[in-house]
């Protein structure tokens, strides 16, 4: 186990050490202490390591992650796991705005609540939120899955493309071109797997969720839809 | 029929035939006009400035004999690996998707042969461009199409695009008919649907966030790459100042003459400011913050010749970028293809429906039959020639002004032909020591 005191050793030293692990490494277990809300912790990783951050993080924790599993034993600031490519990020607490933004792969688990724009423009990432999500979540989301065990705020899935949204609680309002869709057996199966991956299978059953997706009415511009823009 | 003479037909200056045609087109189609390119209206431009060659009060250098250097360093503020270019003319960001793969290859070939950089665009990095570009700037765009950390690390510099001169505040739209399998895969979207490029970054909301975002990009790339910030020419003083505050190594300033792959004509023609008006404000922001020449300024928007290059640099830019001119050098809108442009309802020199993907030149298309017509080796050679000519022209002017480096050109080397140009560029009207606003205002 490699232990890194962020306050004493500094962010640059941490990220440089983690980047040096790219490829084959035997140093697969890392702990970061004293994060104290620092920004850009463990960004740009590209190695199959397990890293635990003991405390809360600032902006862009685990940004563009590849391969690594990063656990935050606290809450995360804006832009958590932005543009993640693969691997996993698990946060025990809450996440601020635009968690999982533009993520292209991997798994993001938020065990508390997520704020506004969770999954904005997501492009293949899977996101599981145990609590609630804020307004404009999954705005222009292109692909991937967003699972919310709690409630969703205003304008869920506005201008949605092909991403699938599963919400167990209430949805304050749906955004433009986002509609409720039938939950078919393949979706129940997918959801069961996502709940398991998201360490939430004991918290909810797939049958309790509703599915939302794009009505695909705005995929090609038509003047008769102008009031929707 | 009356014998009295009639008043001859007279067209309105407001409702011109072109305006009326656009009204009829809008009424029939129900959609605004989308097109590529830059503004087509007359604007105060570099042509409204002239150089004051040396005589007695200044001493010229001998053409083709005395050295006039052209190189430029970019990204010297923070980056471990700043960029050194042989010439101060770079290739502006243009997307794969808007342009064909062979066109991107040709840009890489021509720029590398001329000793300068190319830039990716909305759509990600292609092997054609990376493979043929000695120096490649990777655009980090609001859409984040194709964005990945491997390409960030493969790039020589990163350009955070906040705005574009053709559409400050606006996003883009790649219409469905131009979405090939490859473009769809790179952008994580199905084929055939319109692809919107967002007008703002999804994961930051202002200059303080931008500073943190830039630091994240530096951390991901181990502080090696210069970070450019590109802004559309709208409020250049404040936007330049905020980009500097956010930590930019280089500010890229794009005036409203700058082109786009496809956006609304109303946006291209009615939003933003001419590059002539933008440069002095950006330079003032750099000077006020003690950062002129420390944070480099690249300007773009209608750069066509070595004279434009030299004038931009005399006004305080460190380098320029070309987009539309590079496409023309490759063969876009070539009169040799006139018959085919006419079949598309256009004419060589005016074809701008790039979003339709039917470009006979094979440059702004994803149609394999069309882009096979374009030879990237020949195109690259043409671009190299053009870049060399521009550089020679700029050197010729600089020597005449007594300068042994293009960066030594200065505002005192210029005069203005018109009141508008004098006011915008803050260059004295020819024959005077005065320009409108001198002594007051920003």
From TrEMBL, chain A:
InterPro entries: Glu_synth_asu_C, Glu_synth_asu_C_sf, Glu_synth_lsu_3. It holds the Pfam family GXGXG. SUPFAM superfamilies: Alpha subunit of glutamate synthase, C-terminal domain (SSF69336). GO terms for molecular function: oxidoreductase activity. Residues 47-176 form the Glutamate synthase alpha subunit C-terminal domain. It comes from the Bacteria. This is Protein GlxC. It comes from Paracoccus zhejiangensis.
TrEMBL record, chain B:
This is FMN-binding glutamate synthase family protein. Belongs to the glutamate synthase family. Residues 75-331, 355-403 form the Glutamate synthase domain. Keywords: Oxidoreductase. The keyword Oxidoreductase applies. GO terms for biological process: glutamate biosynthetic process. InterPro entries: Aldolase_TIM (IPR013785), GltB (IPR024188), GltB_archl_type (IPR043578), Glu_synthdom (IPR002932). It comes from the Bacteria. Residues 108-120 have a biased composition (Low complexity). The keyword 4Fe-4S does not apply. GO terms for molecular function: glutamate synthase activity. Residues 107-132 are annotated as: Disordered.
């Amino acid at each position: 186990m490699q232990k890194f005191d962020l306050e004493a050793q500094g962010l640059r030293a941490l990220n440089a050490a983690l980047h040096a692990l790219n490829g084959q490494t035997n140093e697969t277990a890392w702990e970061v202490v004293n994060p104290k809300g620092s920004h850009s912790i463990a960004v740009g990783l590209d190695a199959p390591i397990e890293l635990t951050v003991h405390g809360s993080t600032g902006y862009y924790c685990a940004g563009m992650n590849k391969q690594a599993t990063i656990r935050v034993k606290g809450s995360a600031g804006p832009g958590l796991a932005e543009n993640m490519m693969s691997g996993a990020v698990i946060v025990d607490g809450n996440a601020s705005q635009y968690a999982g933004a533009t993520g292209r792969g991997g798994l993001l688990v938020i065990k508390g609540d997520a704020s506004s724009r969770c999954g904005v423009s997501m492009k293949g990432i899977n996101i599981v939120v145990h609590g609630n999500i804020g307004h404009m979540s999954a705005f222009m989301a292109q692909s991937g899955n967003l699972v919310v065990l709690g409630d969703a705020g205003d304008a869920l899935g506005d201008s949605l493309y092909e991403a699938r949204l599963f919400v167990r609680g209430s949805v304050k309002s749906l955004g433009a071109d986002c509609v409720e869709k039938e939950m078919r057996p393949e979706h129940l199966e997918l959801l069961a797997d996502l709940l398991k991956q998201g360490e939430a299978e004991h918290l909810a059953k797939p049958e309790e969720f509703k599915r939302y997706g794009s009505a695909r009415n705005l995929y090609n511009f038509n003047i008769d839809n102008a009031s929707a823009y | 029929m009356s014998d009295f003479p009639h008043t001859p037909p007279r067209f309105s200056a407001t409702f011109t035939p072109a305006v009326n045609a656009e009204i009829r087109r809008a009424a029939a189609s129900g959609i605004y006009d989308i097109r590529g390119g830059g503004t087509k209206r007359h604007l105060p431009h570099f042509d409204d400035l002239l150089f004051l060659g040396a005589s007695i009060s200044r001493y010229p250098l001998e053409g083709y004999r005395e050295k006039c250097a052209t190189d430029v360093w970019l990204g010297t503020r923070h980056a471990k690996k700043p960029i050194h270019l042989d010439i101060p003319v770079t290739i502006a960001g243009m997307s794969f998707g808007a342009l064909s793969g062979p066109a991107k290859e040709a840009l890489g070939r021509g720029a590398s042969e001329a000793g300068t950089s190319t830039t990716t665009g909305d759509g990600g990095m292609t092997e054609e461009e990376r493979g043929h570009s000695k120096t490649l700037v990777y655009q980090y765009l609001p859409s984040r199409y194709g964005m990945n950390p491997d390409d960030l690390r493969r790039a020589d510099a990163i350009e955070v695009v906040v705005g574009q001169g053709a559409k400050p505040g606006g996003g883009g739209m790649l219409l469905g008919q131009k979405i090939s399998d490859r473009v769809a895969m790179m952008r994580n979207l199905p084929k055939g649907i319109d692809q919107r490029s967002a007008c703002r970054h999804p994961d930051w909301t202002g200059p303080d966030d931008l500073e943190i975002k830039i630091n994240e990009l530096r951390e991901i790339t181990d502080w090696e790459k210069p970070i450019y910030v590109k802004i559309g020419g709208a409020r250049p003083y404040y936007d330049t100042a905020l980009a500097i505050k956010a930590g930019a190594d280089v500010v890229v300033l794009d005036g409203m003459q700058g082109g786009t792959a496809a956006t609304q004509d109303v946006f291209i023609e009615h939003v933003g400011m001419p590059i002539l008006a933008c440069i002095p404000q950006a330079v003032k922001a750099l000077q006020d913050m003690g950062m002129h020449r420390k944070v480099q300024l690249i300007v773009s928007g209608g750069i066509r010749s070595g004279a434009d290059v030299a004038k931009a640099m005399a006004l305080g830019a460190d380098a320029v970028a070309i987009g539309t001119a590079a496409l023309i050098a490759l063969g876009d809108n070539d009169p040799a293809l006139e018959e085919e442009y006419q079949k598309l309802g256009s004419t060589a020199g005016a074809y701008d429906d790039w979003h339709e993907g039917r470009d006979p030149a094979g440059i702004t298309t994803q149609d394999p039959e069309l882009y096979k017509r374009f030879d990237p080796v020949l195109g690259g050679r043409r671009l190299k020639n053009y870049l060399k000519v521009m550089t020679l022209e700029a050197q010729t002017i600089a020597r005449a002004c007594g300068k042994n480096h293009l960066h030594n050109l200065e505002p005192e080397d210029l005069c203005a032909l018109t009141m508008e140009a004098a006011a915008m560029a803050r260059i004295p009207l020819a024959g005077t020591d005065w320009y409108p606003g001198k002594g007051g205002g920003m």
